Amino acid sequence: MKNYFDEICKKLNKEIKIEEIQIVDNSHKHKGHKFYSSEKFHLHLKIKSIYLASLSRVVAQKIVMKVLNNDLKTKIHALEISIEP
What we know:
Blueprint: H1 2-15, E1 20-25, E2 41-48, H2 50-53, H3 57-67, H4 69-74, E3 76-84
Parallel strand pairs: 2-3
Antiparallel strand pairs: 1-2
């Protein structure tokens, strides 16, 4: 799991100017939900990025989701994104 989170950080850092990323795994909070799968993650990305913070929230989140597009189809069930400068 740690390796996968490192992979997410590398993907984002490669495509976006980011100062810091913290990944919080909230998967355990969703056990018992209708579409819960132990194969997929519920993640909260806490991103510090002057670049992303300069954009509208919607545009910034779309950029992050575009970078993680394949992961959203295969390994991430839910994604919360917090952005601050």
